[in-house]
Specification:
Elements lengths: L2 E4 L5 E6 L4 E8 L2 E10 L11 E6 L5 E6 L4 E7 L5 E8 L5 E6 L5 E6 L4 E7 L5 E3 L4 E2 L16
Antiparallel strand pairs: 1-2, 2-3, 3-4, 5-6, 6-7, 7-8, 9-10, 10-11, 11-12, 11-13
Amino acid sequence: PRHIEFHPTGRYVYVVGEWDSTLYILAAEDSLPTKIVNRYPTVPPGFDGKNKTSELCLHPDGRTLFVGNRDSDSIAVFAVDDSGQAEALGHYSSLGRGPASVKVDPAGRHLLVGNVYSGSLAVFAIGDDRRLRPAGEPIEARAPRYLLFHSDHGEG
């Protein structure tokens, strides 16, 4: 296992396998995983090279998962529902090499992708149809391995 996300209902847990490039959906009771109920490949159709997943990120609405694929330089997008089913919605270029980090902004409008091998940060707009659209050219960012959003609520 590489990364894990918990569905807001507490009934499902999502895990990506780093070496097998697989999204695992686990049934859960109060967010405690109990068994694997489904699995899905994360690499683009027809990709036959070696790949390692990097990070998994669940959209704030709980309906979309984003998975980074470091060696296919792609982002897999899955629709998920409350029954534990997933549907591959597409695979998108990470606009760089080695996407190590994928994060959705707290408002759910943009996906940020840190490409460590190319040293760049790509920003995608997330459409109502859950498709990714580049929101400009990638910017230089030295080895962006982990992305975090900071919220300053005006305190202190």
